[in-house]
Every structure is written in structure tokens, then in C-alpha cells.
Amino acid sequence: MAIEAGPEPTLGEELARHRRRRGLTGRQLGEIVGMSQAKISRIETGAGTTEPGDVGTIARALDLGEDEGRRLVARAVMRMQNRMTDWRMTGSGLVRNQERMAELEAATTTYRVFQPVMIHGLLQTSEYARAVMGKFDLAAFGYGAVAEAVSARMKRQEVLTGRRKRFHFLLAEGALANLLCPAAVMLGQIERLRTAVRQDNVDIGVVPFDRQWAVPPMHGFDILDDQCVEIDLLNTGLTTQGSADIRAYRTTFDALWQQAAEDFDGLLDRYLERYLELARPGRRSAAAEQGGGGQAGEAG
């Protein structure tokens, strides 16, 4: 019976193997080539970018020969080129982006989301989506297409009913606090979150303001089946299937998930009270002024 060949060793694994054959520790090799032990470890484990020049220096220090040295340097060059093309722009357009995400979500079994600024699209009410998209429409695209994009986003939410799918939504408390729409709309949005988390296949966590961040909340991201990472930007998006990128974002998500508040319902209750107060007749003018951008987008 033929035995299948194992996976090709990574560049770092090859360098580590050559180092061990020479009987050197990472610290000893670092001293020879003028690099720290930590840097040698990063090169051998593939963490971060491996400079071709560093690979050449190590190859010469290990007396690997000219041909082997050139081969390893070429692998480093190829790895850098692949890293540069891991992230790709996903195009723009409110409606097209909803359609593209619907296609990805339909093929996804486990969905992990971190959103520090606003409620994620799969959890939005139509009124909240209209207000938010109106602001993006105005800022990035000019008026138009909001109604069609909102309809497409609501259609996307049907994916939440998939029994074999699992959704983990993680929000920063700022997503609840940011008034991107009138307070009355936020009342409905709070109840939408309360309803969604009761589904067996939906988990929602919130990192409260009083938690010290394990990782800085630089931006939101979606992880689809640990096979793809999606990031929304103002007027476009980025996507990657690079394994190193996916590992980094999954590690980040897991660390942040550990910081979620234990009392999700209690947190929602506090914001429900806040928005009830803001929605009172005497406070409506101020709340409407803060949420006015969404109404303008809807009119457009």
C-alpha cells in the first residue's frame, strides 16, 4: 500500500531542522547572525514576515551551500508575495455588498463576529439598518440605493434560521451606546437583540466599558468557518483566506470573547431605560438631531 507523503515543511521548519542538525540552539544561532532568540523563533514558527535577507544570512551561517541558500531565499520571497496578496478588496456598493455577504453566509456553518461600533447587520432592525446605511450612503457613495440595500440586508437575516449554523456575535458596549439613529429606533433594536439571543444557534456577548481590553478593538471583523476573514471599510471591504491572518483574528476573537459581560440581559435593560428616557417628548428633538443623518439618507 502506498504511503501518502506528508505536507511540505514550512520555510521556518526547514531552517529549524538545519539548525538542529548543526547542534545549535536558537540563542546560539542568534548570536552568530546578530539576531535575538525571539527573532529566530519568529522566523522558525512563521510568525510575521520573514525577510529574504535574514534567510540568506541564516543559510550562510549554517553552511547550507549556495544552491540550498538560494532555494530558501526564493521561498522567503514567494512567501512575502503571497502575504501581499492574501488581503483583497471586495468592491463597493451598498446593494452588491449585501448580496456578496449573503452568498458567503449561506455557505458558512460557524460565524464569528466582532463589532465595536455598531450592531452587526444580521442583528439589525430595518429601521436601524436604514439609518446606518443612509449615513454610509451619504458619506461614501452619494444618495441612493438605501432602500434596496436595507431589503437585501433583511433578506440576509434568514440565514439565522439555519439549524446547522452557529453564530457568535461579540459587540463592544459602544455598539449599544452609539446613537446612530433616533432613540425610538434603538428601543426596537434592543428588543431585537433580546429576541435573537434566545435562538439556540445564536450567542451574543458584549464587552462592557469597565473591562480592560485584552486586545485593542481596532476594527470589526467577521470570521467564516475559520476559512475567511471579512473587514468592512467606509466604501469598500477587505477579505483574506491567508492561514496566518485567520489564526490571528481567531485568537483575537477568543481573547475578546472571554471579556464579555456575564449579565447580557441586565446590560440591555440599562440601555432600554436610557433610550426610553431619550425618547420622551421633551428629549426627542435632541435625539432626532443626533440621528438626523439616517433620515436624510432614507429620503435620498
Task: Describe it.
The chain starts with 10 loop residues before the first helix and ends with a helix. The protein is about 55% helix and about 10% strand. Strands 1-7-6-5-2-3-4 form a 7-stranded mixed sheet. The longest helix has 21 residues, at about 65-85. With about 300 residues, it is α/β, with parallel strands linked by helices. It folds into 2 domains: about 10-75, Orthogonal Bundle (434 Repressor (Amino-terminal Domain)), CATH 1.10.260; about 90-300, Endonuclease Chain A (Endonuclease, Chain A). Helix 2 (about 25-35) packs across helix 3 (about 35-45) and helix 4 (about 50-60) packs antiparallel against helix 5. It has helices at about 10-20, 25-35, 35-45, 50-60, 65-85, 95-105, 125-140, 145-155, 175, 185-195, 245-255, 265-280, 285-290, 290-300; strands at about 90, 110-115, 165-170, 200-205, 220-225, 230, 235-240. It has 14 helices and 7 strands.
How are the SSEs ordered, and which strands pair?
Elements lengths: L10 H11 L4 H8 L3 H9 L6 H10 L4 H21 L1 E2 L4 H13 L3 E6 L10 H16 L4 H11 L9 E7 H5 L5 H14 L5 E6 L13 E4 L3 E5 L4 E4 L2 H15 L6 H15 L5 H7 L1 H8 L1
Parallel strand pairs: 2-3, 3-4
Antiparallel strand pairs: 1-7, 2-5, 5-6, 6-7
